[in-house]
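User: two proteins, same treatment. go.

Assistant:
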Amino acid sequence: MRYDEIFANSYISLFSEICCAMIQTKEIKSFFFSQYFSDGLRISLGILLPTIVFLQFGEFDLGITLSLGALCICVIDNPGPVVHKRNGMAMGNLCLFIVAVTTGFARVNVYTLGLEVTVFSFLFSMFIVYGNRAASVGTSALLIMIFMMDKELAPNDVLIYSLQILAGGVWYMLFSILFFGIRPYRAAQQALGENVADIVKFLRIKADFYLPDTDIDDNYHKLVSQQIHVSQHQDAVRELLFKSRVMARESTNASRILVLTFVDLVDMFEQIMATHYDYEQIRDKFKDTGILTEIGHFVHQMANELENIGYAILSNTRYKQLVDFNPTLEQLKLRIDAIGNAHETSNLVLKKILINLRDLNKEIENIFNYYNSNSSKILLTDSSDVDVSKFVTHQDYEPHVFFDNFTFDSAAFKHALRVCLVCLVGFTVAKAFALGHHSYWVLLTIIVILKPGFSLSKQRNYQRLIGTISGGVIGIAILLFIPNTNVQFTLMLIFMLGTYSFQRLNYVVSVIFMTPYVLILFKFLKIGHLDIVEERIIDTVIGSSIAFIASYLIFPTWEFEQIKTSLADVIYSNVNYLVRIAKTITGKPVTLTEYKLARKEVYVKSANLSAAFERMTSEPKSKQRNIKDIHKFVVLNHILSSYTATVAQEITLKGMHKTTPDILKLVKKSINVLNETSKKLGGERKEFTGEKAEPTEEQTPTVTDKLLKEQLEFISKISNDIAKITDGILK
């Protein structure tokens, strides 16, 4: 940067550089405090320790076998309550042993092995009907099948070897449970800190709407995309906090503070969602005042403060508040008042923004105080009557769920059929052509890449290829130019840790780390040398090609075939939210739990719709039906849920009810329009049959009534816009 530029923009440039440096440093530190790194460390130790320990006793082969069992079971060790981890890994160990014994005997004949590959690929892929953890149990079983296909074993050794595999799996399960038992709340704390980081990103995107250079349409796309991450992380935290506490029947100070923080975070997210305005209109209205830019920068400062609190939660440290926003809020108030006095146009929308900023500041202060005050005082003053057990989903593991999906209407059934057919093709190709000593890599690639939807398979395919080729180059460079075995071993440990740390965070990076880790490991095992690199890349390309072609041709699942369900679900959840508001208006009691359940449902269904839309955009152009209309629907849904959240805060949380009949009429009008739209999409209706809202005495409508009526009129308009867009989608 030139000196004249520095002096021209001295303060702004210096401040920006410092902020960027602090953010980059904090992001690096946050990674090492995150559950991603924690998971990577736990998995790496769980796999590596058996080999290292038994190496000391001269039983290297036994150590490798135990590590193989641990490697398969670690796939099930996903974030969630410890009880779910334990049950999942226990079931995984049972499947591991059965599949290991079966494969050990089936591999004697190529036809029986081919039959096993076909049957087990279908069976274990169907586990997806029981949720993600059950699906990972199926993946674990398929992994041991693939790893044992080329294992030379005499019939008498199959049972012993399978028991050794089982011992490795049991070891990893016990190690993982012990790991969490030492610090039982750490995983929830990490997930909570990462959820704060997601909300910070969402808040920054919202702040950008006030900046004049921001493209509004592009920013909406970023907003709905980030909403997916927020929703997914909130679900993960709910699982960790609420299911663990419900099952353990305990409520310690540590768990209580985590729950209170999460409840406030969800409320804060609603507060941020509710701050929606017609940004084009307010830009035109106040473009010459500079107030919107000030507001945008102020919201970014609040995001910085919230990010610092999130980092403190993640790193389990105390945080000293750096900024007091109250003086700045007062200055903004004076600026807004001055604009109202100097301009003929109303500054009411600016006052609304100011109120929202004050509420957001209170939420930030509340979270800050949880970690800087007497915990017992917090517990005593908390009066929440929310039944947290209702906020978590409960998976049905009955056998009928499995067999009910034996139909081509089931995406899981079509996925399982696709996997078994493709695995049979991959197995045939690997056996028919001399692909090297590790032909199982073809099947391994297929298992990892094939996902229920085309877009996910395409994404994973691309990531696997790029990661394998890039990692192969790194592996070759290390083996050629770093002959020192101690350095190679150290690098292998680093690559191993990186592989498991990034497997959920960034799959491309994970595969880039995985390839040199495997190559160096094979070098130490004296299994090939540089030819292994060529073999791995060729096998990966073959497996990727087969998987990609199959995902397009064999029982493909396209988003346009299922998008109507997502659209209907999100409309139904919005209607349910509006019905709660209508009940409160008529004076009927609506509990805080009912309100928050309705709110959660709106955000979850909205995130699901946004995710479905994103997947559709990565599918072939010929399969992107009504893509522009669906994008408009997603944006309109975001606006609708934002305004509904605003009204819900005014009515439900602040106890306003028994308002004028015309206000209830507006709510019922929106409900009816959305119900009709849901019906067209084949969805459910949620009727409101409440009593009429009759004021007890004649009174002049207050300013609050006028504001409420204005907001409900806008909700009615958005509901009609959604109905029109839906008609376009259905054509």
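Protein 2:
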Amino acid sequence: MATFLYKLGRLSFRRRHFVALIWVALLTLAGVGAASAPAAGNSSFSIPGTEAQKAFDLLEQRFPGTSADGATARVVFKAPSGEKMTDPGNKATVQETVKELSDGSEVVRVTDPYQAKAVSKDGTIAYAQVSYKVSGMELDDAAKDALQDTAQDAREAGLTVEIGGDALQAVPHTGSSEIIGIAVAAVVLVITFGSLVAAGLPLLTALIGVGIGVSAITGLASALDLGSTTSTLAMMIGLAVGIDYALFIVSRYRAELAEGREREEAAGRAVGTAGSAVVFAGLTVVIALVGLSVVNIPMLTKMGIAAAGTVAIAVLIALTMVPALLGYAGRKVKPMGEKGKLLGRAKKQDQPAKPNLGTRWASFVVRRPVAVLLLGVIGLGAAAVPATSLELGLPDDGSQRTSTTQRRAYDLLSEGFGPGFNGPLMVVVDAKDSDDPKAAFAETGDEIKGLKDVVTVTPAQPNKAGDTATITVIPGSKPSSVTTENLVHGIRDAGADIKAGTDANVLVTGSTAMNIDVSEKLNDALVPYLVLVVGLAFLLLIVVFRSILVPLKAALGFLLSVMAALGAVVAVFQWGWLSGLMGVEQTGPVMSMMPIFMVGVVFGLAMDYEVFLVTRMREAYVHGEKPAQAVVTGFRHGARVVTAAAVIMMAVFAGFIGSSESMVKMIGFGLAIAVFFDAFVVRMAIVPAVLALLGRKAWWLPRWLDRALPNVDVEGEGLRAASGDDDGDRELVRV
């Protein structure tokens, strides 16, 4: 592989006009495609295999035209102080509002609060429920604007009016913090390279890659039903890995220049060596992201595949566009050790070189491996303690900012009708095989009334055929509580007894039940996902490092960092530590998608640093250095760059903490803190300590496996042999 990439790097350097033209053309085509593509509605949401989804599908068959899984909006009214919603003036305003709400083309029905008895006991709060033909993710902007305008008319009449439900779902925005993250990355690159030109290359190539990836996602959004969160995730990961991959190529290029090589040769060798690490690091990220498909949640699968495509583009750009731009830069990119005027004059040639910080740190770790290992493991273990209290759920209106109308509507409904009113359960009774459907409906209602935490059970509402009915159940607890989850399971358990006595099937659905089912589905998929992703990456790393213990150590270190990161997420988003600093106004359960998503993304990114740092150690070891000295050599060449890459990735991810979407905010924080733990504690401390303790055993591989594995030549052995660099003074170590 090193030889092929070496030739590709030289070709890209020499034919830079052609390479640059190809990438600019791709960016232009993607941009034109995105601009001319039909406007994409919000993506649909379905969870195959869950009971809640089965109930929705059944309702579509038995109650045609009712759009059971369509969007809903609860328009909540509160009377002025000292008045009631039953006062004639307030009642007239509400009825006029209901009439206006019914005019929308996508509206199925609107309930009148006075006919539906949707007025609180004290008479101060009432609500009208609007049902739509399509889901909240598919509702067009015109319908949302009409809903808000109608509510504003009622406000002007003197009522307090807020809108809850999923009808006002909005495209998340990240705010200025995303720009700040890119600015931090630019500053780190300038400090690392001491040159604006060298620093600008990784930023430019990363932006080109993200531009192509996000434009392609936008262009295909309508055809493939991709949501707005998909492009946000692709941008987040694409920026981070795009900058990092280019950073490693440029750094290796400068190191090759420092050894006296011509610029074209240096570009070829940089791509042949560091480029090999980029390929395998990118493969681990792609495996982790594509592996999200095992969860069988279409939205998550699409997010993973789209982000993986952006990572693949970042790899290709690093291997081709970066050497092409190095050709354009010429002597403006200086050899390693030479710095531009930004950082002062270079040292005199005859002045002895002082060991850099990476060399000094690695030397310390090699001398004190046990102490460093214990300190790192204990520290990460302490950070992981909050993860033992992890509670999972999906965000509802109660987790919104207090400034949003959805959150204010949520609070008003809780005030007027109780906390469980925000999470009604819909029970579907399928009595098609029952001898007496009416008796089955009645028995189901009676069974549910006897369960704990049930406040209200509405009478059964049968369909025209009389073989299926819906029953609405109002819990006593808020939607995201464990008590409500237990009630859902209690109704389903009671359904088994009902089926035995009446031959009727009882299914529980609704947004609350759907959230519970999604959380359980994600929990059940976590272990198979871990086995698949970690297993495939483990095999890949065996090929890269030609070792058993190094990949094993990499996987165990990853588990430490991801558990510590989950602990930090729990501490901030569930316990409320530093929640004000992070803009978290409402603590609650951690998003159920977070653990499996963090495992996938963080594993791929963690292996980036493992590959970049440890391949340089293996390269030194293969070419004759002792194990301990190889660790120091790896840090001398790679620590500064890995540190810069980690800081850049943290800055990019942290930039998304300012998002208005709670899911994006949590993902941004979780990935940023996970990169910190993995790069600076695991890869910079635990990894060299373990390698120092293992010595030559770290690079042991059974002979039969060594013969069976393909030789991918990540360390560039073939390049040295071809150029005569390996002059026989030292023999390659056989491992």
